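Bug report (template v2)

What were you trying to do?
Predict the complex of my protein with dinuclear copper ion.

What happened?
Run completed; filing so the output is reviewed.

Input:
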Amino acid sequence: MEVLTTEMNWVPEVASNFANQVDGVLWFITWISIVFFVLITILLVYFSFKYKRRTDNDETPHITGNETLEIIWTIIPSALLMVIFVYGFVVYKDMRTPPGDAVEVSVTAKQWLWVFKYPNGQSTINELYVEHNRPVKMVMRADDVLHSFYVPEFRVKQDVVPGMYTQLWFKPTKVGTYDLFCTEYCGSGHSEMLAKVYVMSPEAFTRWERGGDEEDSGVAAVAKSPEDLGADLYKNKGCNACHSIDGATGVGPTFKGLFGKNEPLQDGSTVLADENYLRESILIPQAKMVAGYAPVMPSFKGLLKDEEVDAIIAYIKTLK
Ligand code: CUA
């Protein structure tokens, strides 16, 4: 079992307190299935030869029942199912019971991005920052449709539902960067609804909490030109889920050739897509709606720093 789980990478890396427990249940059930699959297949082949009809006069024996056999094949599977249930339930109970000292992070899922709000008031988009070995509890809601929060390395998955809070908790046990997937089909941008989880050492996390600056966190480093930063933000902040850069029509207008263009608005007027219009559209998307598009874009007010808005505009300018 150890060989299968670690050396062959049949399951993702182990990076939370639940990973080994969940893998334990998974392998337990898998091995029971393998044993019965092999046993039944061997018996099937063996019996098909042993009880083969050999002459035209062979008669099928008349069997009415076998109490001992029936008791055995009832009791063994029932006992196994009870063991699977109890084992699974013990792990499930742990996963549903956050410890009292867990840090609470509020999660909002919307088409098509993740917003995280931390106890100190900080917010991030598509980037979740957590401290190594410190339990965190996600209190989650959706703004529009069903989404689902899934981090394979942590073995946690929970639907995020409009109109109610759902929650999950975990303790990250390994410093590193992990992928967070939306794992409930939620519309055309579903496959782009990705985020990163940064598990940081306590020192790095404190620096990040105080400064809120990624340079200090040791996560993202090198200084970038506004255009390059904008290109990164386009992918990391979820712009790419709705706005193409190749002219293709999406949920929102394409970024290609957008800067300097006269955009027709829903009220029949037009607006010049200059710096101020782009900035307004990022911060207050419904202020001037481009004709033919639904008012679905979430506001990025408070979620992007001024320099980040600058960078995205600089990036849009490069898309001629
Ligand atoms: Cu959100 Cu799929």
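What did the reviewer find?
The first strand starts at residue 103 and ends at 110. The radius of gyration is 28 Å.
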